Amino acid sequence: MLLEHLVLPMGDTMIGGSMMSELRKLRKMNGDQRIQHERLMKVLCHAAKKSPYYRDLNIPEHENPVTYLKRFPILTKQILREETSRMLTMPVHGLSRECSSGTSGFQSIVYWTKMEQSQHRATQLMWWEWAGFRMGDPILQTGITPNRKLIKGIKDKLLNTYYLQAFSHSEEHVRKAFDWVKSKKDPVLAGYASSLYVLAQFAEKMGERIQFKTAISWGDKLFPHYRRQIEKVFNTKVHETYGSAEGLMMGAQKDLDHMYLMNQNVYVELVDDEGNEVPEGEMGHVIVTSLNAFAMPLIRYRIGDLARMLPREQYPAKRSHDYPIIEKVIGRDTDLVRTPGGKVLVVHSFTGIFEHIPEISQFRITQEKLSGIKIEFVPGDGYHEQLLDRVREKLNENIREPFEIEFIERNQIPPSASGKPQLIISKISPAIS
Fold it and tell me: Which residues contact 421 (CB under 8 A, 6 or more apart)?
């Protein structure tokens, strides 16, 4: 195809990138652990020699890369923020700067080379291909960078992309986007999970009959009711992906209900509150080491998420890749409610209740003390106070211990500072330092 074999390679040449050559390499990979371990050793040795922060830790080397990795301390967002300049292995001049959204409370800043940027973009493009996207397909994409600078603007034109602001949809803007979609053949929907859900709600309300070839979500949690609404209204299948603004491209769906873990990009550990690795099938904090980041190594970075790996004995016999399989990304480790008796409630503990109560249009949980929570809510059509008794009853069935639940009615609940919706705000510090 002209786009893949001529136009995009020419674009790489113009901006000094290598996305297309990296994409071709990725297509040939299939989860070989030997490649992962070779890359892990390379990045650990590089960091220990070239990064002032890691060099000063004087970490003794080991011939086994996994054993060597365990000798490195866990990297928190606060350390990353405080030690940014000392973590670099090369002058900042010529590097690209990327900031995270800061939904965890700390906005992180990382620096990439053009090669590392190309690897990031190539991974994303391959994930789109996994979902059924083909070069040339028109894309309705939602995001939080409406000011499309040179490189992103070129990408949008080359990939036939209509870009829509993710977290401030208006009916006027959505109608224009839908009109564009209806003029295209085999359009693809891609963007933040919550914004795709909102678009599906708009389409249903407007009575729009729109079908997408496929849908690809990223950026925030794809809740089951989001997926059901998007797939029902747009008559398509949603493919979930898992990455971060720090350039950590971790997983994506292809032929399974679960996501493949991209072990040529990252080495992932799941650990408990004390930092001990948890068995497959158990929930743990995501600790991730980038195997592509050499300008600014990210080693044992606590990204702030919770996840579970699928136990090996449960792997489907028929699958397209030999990558490890992520059973579920549960959410941020600040998206937890804890009880005095030691129980932990995840976001799904609440969405599983409220999705069956459409008379409450929006909610948010805040925990300021271990003894209870506050539930802010926005009443919708048909709301009555007895619905709160139903919520309380369902929660008590799950908690089964004394626990205070206070309801606060609101006219609206604003999104977080990043623009992303945040369903749980925990002011109880999570463990692991």
Answer: 167, 194, 220, 415
> Is residue 375 within 8 Å of residue 354, measured between CB atoms?
no
Spell out the long-range contacts of 157-165 with Cβ–Cβ below 8 A and sequence spacing 24 or more.
Answer: 158/3, 158/7, 158/8, 158/11, 159/135, 160/136, 160/184, 162/138, 164/140, 164/191, 164/195
Is residue 186 scored above 80 in pLDDT?
yes
The mean pLDDT value for 53-57 works out to: 97
CA 336 to chain centre: 17
All structural domains of the chain, each given as residue ranges with its CATH number in brackets, are 1-29+113-243 (3.40.50), 31-107+257-330 (3.40.50.12780), 337-426 (3.30.300.30)
Kindly report, residue by residue over 365-384, the tens digit of the pLDDT: 999 999 999 999 999 889 99
pLDDT tens digits, one per residue of 404-424: 999 999 998 876 654 556 788
pTM of the model: 0.79
Among all chains, which residue has been given the structure tokens 């209806």?
A: 182
Beta-sheet strands, E only, within 236-319: 238-243, 249-253, 259-261, 266-271, 284-290, 301-309
Q: What is the mean pLDDT of residues 117-131?
A: 94
Average pLDDT (328-344) is 80
Please write down the HEC assignment for all residues of 191-226: EEHHHHHHHHHHHHHHCCCCCCCEEEEECCCCCHHH
Asked if 143 and 191 touch (Cβ cutoff 8 Å), the reply is yes
Which of 236, 290, 302, 296 is closest to 263 using CA atoms? 290
